[in-house]
Amino acid sequence: MIVGVGPVGADDVVAVARGGAEVTLGDDALSAIAQTRTHIESLAARPDPVYGVSTGFGALATRHIPEHLRTELQRSLIRSHAAGTGDVVEPEVVRAMMLLRLSTLATGRTGIRPETATAYAALLSSGLVPVVHEYGSLGCSGDLAPLAHVALTLTGEGVVATPDGRIIPTAEAFAEFGLHPVTLAEKEGLALINGTDGMLGMLLLALADLDNLFAVADISAAMSVEGLLGTDKVFADDLQRLRPQPGQAAAAANMRAVLADSQIVASHAGPEDTRVQDAYSLRCAPQVAGAGRDTAAHARMVAENELASAIDNPVVTLSGEVVSNGNFHGAPVAYVLDFLAIAIADLASISERRTDRFLDRSRNHGLPPFLADDPGVDSGLMIAQYTQAAIVSELKRLAVPASVDSIPSSAMQEDHVSMGWSAGRKLRRAVDGLARVLAIEVLTAGRGVQMRAPLRPSPASAAVIETLRSAGVDGVGPDRFLAPEIERAVGAVVSGDVRAAVESVVGRLQ
């Protein structure tokens, strides 16, 4: 893909982060970068200090750095800021972060040289991934440590992961892949590390995952309603219009589509059914899942605004001034990262409650306890629900906002920070947990629906059950090693196979 002066799209970020798409800088970007660089060089030649160009950084900004020390200044900045520790961050996060930083460089507002931006693009396209660590960013002055580890790689130092998974010194990798280290000039160190790119990259990847998982949540909820002999009447369009929340309407429409033409639902739709109403976990599924969808819609708006931003400090204005600012503060992104973790925890919680109903013979309307083949000899899916409960408990802890915390840094110069990177890290764990909880509900609901034979499930539910069987997730039968089947169900959810199975029958879900 070509990165120009305009913002990259969310789909572009996913394509580069996960699909390995290569990038180049457009002529418009190179022209804008070159034009702005002339302003930086003019300011660098002045005798008076200019922050980010001829001074120290942060709390050390009062020192004027003479010209002969400025290359060392840039080198020292990157080396000192590459101070991360902990587990290695996933390659897709690093690649997303790099593309987003390159997009800001391409705006021409950072003062970087064209050759440095071109080298950054070449590093991203090479398939080499700088080793970035879990801890180090406070989400203010941007994701400093993570971006500094990338910048360190650009200068030929540090270590990288190769496409075949080796962790080797950058100098060795550059020689192997035909890349050359960059010696940074005035302003370039800050331009490479001052941005919300890490937290924004994690937000965009999470939104891509949630687009699939929200649909799966509607599918699993509908299958649970079906298997638990619930009613589909509460999902009627006219009822949803009484509360015009867009996410709720979409979730209810998806559930109606999944339940269409189900013999199981039709079997108790007449006056012989004396139950007045279903439990909340069934009846209110569109309200909870819909609220999650609306939260994601708000987060997507914030992400799109951030994609259109040129974040650096100081920034080069259109008039050529170099101006300090606070746009690097990650609060807008941090808040929605936390907000999504809250929505995920609640969506997983209601899913687990439906699974528990399936396993309790006092509430599952005639199914064997724990959906066991021979209860007492077999335990069925008893411990699968334990696994769900353990994940849901963890998700509740992950829902505690990171963005409400702040620890002052840089000798009180940076006295309020966003913790957006931390919010992004826990959101990634939350998304993974949600996928696993939903997969267990799909597995459970599939078995429960199968136990309603000879009544036939809806065509959509039947397609999901067939997809599970094809993936190696067996149905009713004696107890067997369950963990591999859960992992296969997770794979079918995460890959989009469960959603695709339904859409092959009912058309595209909302």
From TrEMBL:
Primary location class: cytoplasm
EC number(s) recorded for this UniProt protein: 4.3.1.3
InterPro entries given in the database record: Aromatic_Lyase, Fumarase/histidase_N, HutH, L-Aspartase-like, Phe/His_NH3-lyase_AS
GO biological process, one term: L-histidine catabolic process
GO CC, alphabetical: cytoplasm
CDD domains tied to this protein: PAL-HAL
Gene3D superfamilies, per the entry: Fumarase/aspartase (Central domain), Fumarase/aspartase (N-terminal domain)
Cell location: Cytoplasm
Keywords: Histidine metabolism, Lyase
Family annotation (Pfam families): Lyase_aromatic
GO molecular function, one term: histidine ammonia-lyase activity
Superkingdom of source: Bacteria
UniProt pathway: Amino-acid degradation; L-histidine degradation into L-glutamate; N-formimidoyl-L-glutamate from L-histidine: step 1/3
Catalytic activity: L-histidine = trans-urocanate + NH4(+)
Entry-linked PANTHER family: HISTIDINE AMMONIA-LYASE
Protein family per UniProt: Belongs to the PAL/histidase family.
UniProt name for this protein: Histidine ammonia-lyase
Gene source species: Gordonia jinhuaensis
Gene (UniProt): hutH
